[in-house]
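Renewal narrative, Specific Aim 1. Our central claim is that a sequence can be written position by position from structural information alone. The example that follows is taken directly from our test logs and has not been curated for this report. It begins with the C-alpha cells describing the chain, in the order in which they were read.
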C-alpha cells in the first residue's frame, strides 16, 4: 500500500486529549468524528453475533468504502445516546478502530482499550421485499435508522468529461455495485413509489426522505434533464402522502431559479442542498473542475443564495467534504489557515440564509485523492464548532441533516445542544 495512507498518530492529539480540550462538545460527538475519520474493522468475534435476519447489512450506496470492497458486513453502528455513526470498513494497516466483542457486547476498541459500547442497526422490514419489476427494495432505498436515502442515478456526467471531483468515487463504485450486486444505474419512479409505500408501513421509523444522484449536464438549459428526472421521482414518492409537501431533501446540482421553482411548485420537496464540496474559488477550481467549468464557484454560490427566496430561510444548504481543503499538493498547508478561510466563506453564506455542513473526508481507493490522508481530529472538531456557531448566530436550521434525520455530519450532531 502507499506510504501516504499510513497514519502517524504520534504527531496528533489523542482522542482523550481532544475531548479534554473541548469540554463544550459532547464526548460522543468527538468519538463519532474520529471513528468516521479513521474507519473501522470488524473482528471475527464481532461478526460472530451478527444476524442478517435482524441486523441491517450493507446496502447499495452512492460512494464506496476505504477497503474498496463490497462485503456482507453490518451497515453501521448506534452509540448509547441513540445517534448513529456511518462507519467505513477500512483495512487494518490503516489503523482503524476495531469493532470487537467485549463481555458479550459490541465495542469500539482502540489500542486494546474500550472506547465505547455500540449496537448494530436493525434491518427494516421492506428489505425483504421486491418491487413489481423484481428489484430488491433494498436496491431502491437505503435505510438509515430514521431516514430513507434514494439514489436515483449513480452516474455523473463530470466523469465523462474526465473532470470529476477529486475526492469522489461515485462512478467507479457504482459500476462495481452493478457488476457484483445487480444494482440498477438508474431507478424507475414506479419502483421508488412502491418501495417508499412499503417503508412507510413501518410506522414511526422514518422521519424524512433524501434524494441525490450524479450531475446530468444535458437539456435545453444546463441540468434540465436532471431536474426533469427529480421531478418525476418526487412526484412518484408524493403519491404516498395526503399532503402536498412531505419531509424531504434533495442534494443536487446548482439549478437556476426557473428549475428551482419547478422543483418547489411541482413536487412535495421541502429542502434543497447543492454541495460546493470545498469553500473558496481557488480550491474549488482545483478539486471540482467539472463544477468549476460548468457553473463556476461564484455562480454556484449565488444560485444557493437565490434558492433561499424559493425554499425559505434555513431550508437551503451546501455540503462540504471537510478536510479536503488540506489535500496535497495545492491545499492549505496549515489547519489554522484552512479553518479560517472555510469559516469566512461559510459566514457569507450564512448571512444570506444558506447553512453549511460537512462530512468527514475519507480518501477512497476509487478517487483521484486515494493516496492522501485526512487531517487531525482536532481540526474536525474545530470545524464542527465553527459551522455550528454560525448557524446559531444567524438563526439557521439543519433539520434535514441533524443527528436525528441524517447522522453523517459532526456539526449537525451539535444541533442537539440547542
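The sequence written for that structure reads:
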Amino acid at each position: 500500500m502507499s506510504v501516504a495512507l499510513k497514519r502517524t498518530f504520534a504527531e496528533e492529539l489523542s482522542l482523550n486529549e481532544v475531548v479534554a480540550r473541548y469540554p463544550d462538545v459532547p464526548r460522543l460527538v468527538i468519538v463519532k468524528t474520529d471513528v468516521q475519520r479513521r474507519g473501522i474493522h470488524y473482528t471475527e468475534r464481532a461478526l460472530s453475533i451478527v444476524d442478517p435476519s435482524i441486523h441491517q447489512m450493507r446496502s447499495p450506496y452512492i460512494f464506496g468504502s476505504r477497503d474498496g470492497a463490497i462485503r456482507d458486513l453490518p451497515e453501521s453502528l448506534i452509540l448509547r445516546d441513540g445517534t448513529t455513526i456511518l462507519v467505513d470498513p477500512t483495512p487494518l494497516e490503516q489503523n482503524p478502530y476495531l469493532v470487537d466483542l467485549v463481555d458479550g457486547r459490541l465495542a469500539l476498541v482502540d489500542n486494546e482499550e474500550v472506547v465505547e459500547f455500540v449496537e448494530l442497526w436493525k434491518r427494516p422490514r421492506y428489505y425483504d421485499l421486491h418491487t413489481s419489476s423484481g428489484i430488491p427494495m433494498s436496491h431502491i432505498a437505503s435505510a438509515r435508522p430514521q431516514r430513507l436515502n434514494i439514489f436515483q442515478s449513480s452516474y455523473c456526467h463530470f466523469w465523462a468529461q474526465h473532470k470529476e471531483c477529486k475526492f469522489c468515487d461515485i462512478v467507479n463504485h457504482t459500476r462495481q455495485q452493478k457488476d457484483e450486486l445487480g444494482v440498477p444505474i438508474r431507478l424507475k419512479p414506479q419502483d421508488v413509489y412502491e418501495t417508499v409505500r412499503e417503508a412507510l408501513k413501518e410506522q414511526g421509523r422514518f422521519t424524512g426522505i433524501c434524494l441525490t444522484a450524479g450531475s446530468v449536464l444535458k437539456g435545453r438549459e444546463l441540468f434540465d434533464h436532471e431536474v426533469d428526472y427529480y421531478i418525476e421521482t418526487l412526484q412518484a414518492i408524493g403519491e404516498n402522502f395526503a399532503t402536498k409537501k412531505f419531509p424531504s431533501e434533495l442534494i443536487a446540482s446548482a439549478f437556476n431559479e426557473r428549475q428551482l421553482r419547478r422543483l418547489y411548485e411541482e413536487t412535495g420537496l421541502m429542502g434543497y442542498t447543492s454541495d460546493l464540496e470545498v469553500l473558496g474559488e481557488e480550491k474549488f477550481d482545483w478539486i471540482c473542475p467539472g463544477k468549476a467549468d460548468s457553473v463556476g464557484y461564484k455562480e454556484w454560490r449565488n444560485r444557493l443564495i437565490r434558492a433561499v427566496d424559493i425554499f425559505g430561510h434555513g431550508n437551503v444548504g451546501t455540503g462540504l467534504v471537510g478536510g479536503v481543503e488540506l489535500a496535497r499538493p495545492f491545499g492549505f498547508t496549515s489547519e489554522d489557515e484552512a479553518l479560517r478561510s472555510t469559516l469566512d466563506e461559510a459566514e457569507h453564506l450564512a448571512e444570506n440564509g444558506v447553512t453549511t455542513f460537512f462530512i468527514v473526508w475519507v480518501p477512497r481507493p476509487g478517487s483521484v485523492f486515494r493516496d492522501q490522508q485526512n487531517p487531525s481530529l482536532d481540526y474536525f472538531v474545530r470545524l464542527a464548532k465553527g459551522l455550528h456557531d454560525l448557524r446559531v448566530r444567524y438563526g439557521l436550521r439543519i433539520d434535514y441533516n441533524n443527528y436525528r434525520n441524517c447522522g453523517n455530519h459532526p456539526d449537525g450532531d451539535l444541533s442537539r445542544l440547542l
